[in-house]
Amino acid sequence: MAAIETLVPPAKVAAAGAGSPVTVEARDVNVYYGEKQALKQVDLDVRRHEVTALIGPSGCGKSTFLRCINRMNDVIEGCRVTGRISLDGEDIYDSDLDVVALRARVGMVFQKPNPFPKSVYDNVAYGPRIHGMAANRGELDEIVANSLERAGLLKEVRDRLNDPGTGLSGGQQQRLCIARAIAVNPEVILMDEPCSALDPIATARIEELIDEIRANYTIVIVTHSMQQAARVSQRTAFFHLGELVEAGDTPEIFTSPRDRRTHGYITGRFG
Amino acid sequence: MPNVTFLVATLLLATVAFVIGRRRAVEVGGPRRRDLHSLPSYYGLYVALWCGIPALAVGALWMMFEPGIVDSLVLDALPAGMVPADPHQVSFLQTAIRRLANAAVIPSDADPALIAAAAHYNSLQQTASLALAAVLLAVGIVGLVWARSHISPAMRARNRVEKLIMIALFVCSCLSVLTTIAIVLSLIFESIRFFQAVPITDFLFGLEWSPQTAMRADQVGSSGAFGAVPLFLGTALITAISIVVAVPIGLFVAIYLADYASPRARAVVKPLLEILAGIPTVVFGFFAALTVAPFLRGLGGSIGLDVASESALAAGVVMGIMIVPFVSSLSDDVMNAVPQSLRDGSAALGATKSETIRQVVVPAALPGIVGGVLLAVSRAIGETMIVVMAAGLAANLTVNPLEAVTTVTVQIATLLVGDQEFDSPKTLAAFALGLLLFCVTLVLNLVALHVVRKYREKYD
Ligand SMILES: Nc1ncnc2c1ncn2[C@@H]1O[C@H](COP(=O)(O)OP(=O)(O)OP(=O)(O)O)[C@@H](O)[C@H]1O
Ligand SMILES: [Mg+2]
Prior knowledge:
Helix content of chain A is 37%, strand content 25%. By secondary structure, chain A is an alpha/beta fold. The longest helix of chain B is centred in the middle third of the chain and has 41 residues, at 157-197.
């Protein structure tokens, strides 16, 4: 089990500095699907260059909150968001805001790897092409190579750039999706259970990767694995039945949760 | 409908067989059903299949041969001298007899010999029906008894039923394959006869098509010209025009339906498109001839273009509209089948809806879209009515869409319309054209299949 050794040790909050500036600020966020309220008055700060983990039992609204940050809820029929969410102080639900530009700033990695049915290269080049980030083929090549490198995939796919992305293994596909998100150079990367479809070794690779790239990005990750939250995140937010029960530094949440429900969840008594 | 009666009777017999087989299984299974290898109903089904399938097969063979035998018996019984030598006349006579036999009231002026023949025909039919009933019953009962005698707890009725079903399915698929082969063979043989009269090179490369062979040798144009090139060029021209019209419209409609339309709009537009697909082609034909062609002619006139009153353009445009539903319906289905996760992935990268469609949805759905387009192409190639009415019959060798052209199918239709002898080059040419058309569409299909498969391998 060589891969276990590559697991990162439990993250230290001090490494990021408790005082790093807030990137995403959510205030009094309510989300409704039709009549049903999925999120209730959520206030949460996501700090720059930190990994924030969202945990909680199934159906408590973690994905819903994540999708608020890049307004992917917009496409869901009957979904309504109230309250204020700002990215670097700018209200992202402002009617003047360009959603397309916002999504370039806030990337997303999904639960199930969803590479496009295109070549590995074209998968990564997709975003940069759409946003006109490369002036010529050389620059595009560089962006692609860079993103793959940062996603820790370049070595494995260097001679397979023209093969279909769907032909990679599940773990490679997920890293390809991360590379694809990185390629548009976002500030924030949202990850919705990125490892739930992967085996422990591929999971370890991704966790390692998250820890590496956090120096350049702000990451929000939804996970069902307490261990994963403890390993990769600096801050943890616990949701329950649409409410944000408590949020704080990860070691604190896991060692001395203030709320009874949090305690129950992390010790596995319900969830 | 005696045939239906026999079918229903056979099915009833099979049902009885089912009940008998099932009961027998329960009997031999004893009080402890557990000894039986399969559920009792499988034994019932086994017996029913052994009873029904042979009976149905015999019935089908009977139906195939009975009319011929009855007819020849009737002819034999006719007074000598009444049977003409000419086979055409014979079939005419047979039709007359059959009509008399089925007539409710026998006309007073009918030939007494014919009336007698009709009565004979009817009695033969009756005998035949009785004989068929007896044969079916016998075959069914033999099958039933034989299968029932085989029932024992150890018999694997479930597996045997599975095998019987497989054989039945296999026979069905063989039938369709055999029919196709038979059609192709008949095309080939008739074409060979045609090529004995007209050299194959003249047919394949000849630039002139005028199949009017003369009745008498001294008439003008007695030779007839059978160059197929103008016909295939005309077909290609009209098909190309219709594709140019149908593919963009069909694709846009599909995109609208798959990604933009609200469920309410979808519920209205889809059925409307299906209605478009259900309009008879004749209606499209006169629409093309009476509305579109004059309109195009007027439009061309106003900008100084000379448009023939029957033009490839008119036929092509209307044909394009006709095949829009083929393209759009299939493309819509495959685009709907593209997973939402791909659309989400693209949107999350900041792509707009149309970028997502252009770069993710359409490429992912391409094999299906190509399939839809090819289906539309074969529809267009095979279409006759619109072209007859809107593009004319003149076999012009031209690629100018404003002129009248004709197509392969139209010529086949005109070659065979009316009373024709079946051994003149004129009628045999229809088979040669059919064969060539078949080859062309076959190659088209193979190419398409190849393209689609290659694409699949790459991206699935
Ligand atoms: N598209 C939707 N339409 C209606 N209700 C929805 C929709 N998406 C989510 N919900 C509801 O909102 C609530 C929160 O869902 P959400 O997907 O955010 O939960 P989650 O915490 O991500 O759960 P899981 O851990 O199972 O992914 C659930 O009760 C769910 O049923
Ligand atoms: Mg979720």
